[in-house]
Amino acid sequence: MVKLFRCEICGDPYIGESAPDNCPFCGAHKEYVKDIKEAEVNFNLELNDTDKANAEYALKVEISNAAFYACASNNSEDEHGRLLFKALAKVEAEHASIWKKILKLDSIPAGDDTCSDTNSKNLEESHARETKAIQFYGKAANEAENARIKQIFLALVEIEKDHLVFSENS
Ligand SMILES: [Fe+2]
Ligand SMILES: [Fe+2]
Predict the structure, then answer these.
(1) Phi first, then psi: what are they for 98, rounded to 5°?
(2) Coil, helix or strand for 35?
(3) Residue 102: how many CB atoms within 10 A of its CB?
(4) Of 60, 79, 87, 103, which residue is the least packed, with the fewest Cβ within 10 Å?
(5) What is the CA(14)–ligand 2 centre distance, in A?
(6) Which residues are paired to 56 by β-bridges?
(7) Taking ligand 1, which is a single-atom ion, which protein residues have CB atoms under 5 Å away?
């Protein structure tokens, strides 16, 4: 019988027989996807100046990466690349929506990043973008005063690290 689960990182609900290994929306690892009755989700936070500045920068990073991956999906030379970059674009857009909720914005500004027209060049750029995001999120997690902000940044480090596998194995 299916149950209702909820991801503690992005807050989105999931219906399934069991908890997925990764949140299908934001990619958070299994430990964050909980039975709806046990999930603790809070986006209504009081942020100090550092946490707020890091959240604002994270929003920009995610918007930029989502636009880049959408471009790479459109430009892909094959179906596999189209789907891979589409999946990555969806995850990064979900990350942008986490920061939208934390920053209490009405909408997410559209990204205008461009990309190359070959999958190999776009995978190289993916690697550079993910590496940069991992470094920034690690630093932001260390600096975080708010425990919830720290939790989100640490989860994002794990998720973006997972994405490196696609550029490393190609
Ligand atoms: Fe999630
Ligand atoms: Fe992301």
Answers:
(1) -60, -45
(2) strand
(3) 23
(4) 79
(5) 19
(6) none
(7) 7, 9-10, 23, 25-26, 28
Alpha carbon of 123 to ligand 1 centroid (Å): 24
Chain segment 47-56, per-residue pLDDT in tens: 999 999 999 9
Q: How far apart are CA 81 and CA 79, in angstroms?
A: 5
Tally Cβ neighbours within 10 Å of residue 127.
Answer: 16
Report the alpha-carbon distance of residue 125 to residue 40 in Å, rounded.
35
* CA of 117 relative to ligand 1 center, distance in Å: 30
Do 170 and 120 contact (CB within 8 A), yes or no?
yes
The per-residue pLDDT for range 56-91, each reduced to its tens digit, is 999 999 999 999 999 999 999 999 999 999 999 999
Give the full edge-to-edge strand order of the sheet including 13-16.
Answer: 13-16, 3-7, 33-35
Q: In angstroms, what is the span from residue 92 Cα to ligand 2's centroid?
A: 4
Of 76, 108, 74, the closest CA to residue 92 belongs to: 108
Listed in sequence order, the residues at least 6 apart from 29 whose beta carbon sits closer than 8 Å to its beta carbon are 21, 22, 155, 158, 159
Residue with tokens 């999946």: 87
Model pLDDT for residues 98-157, shown as the tens digit of each residue: 999 999 999 999 999 999 999 999 999 999 999 999 999 999 999 999 999 999 999 999
How many Cβ atoms from other residues are within 10 Å of residue 132's Cβ? 13
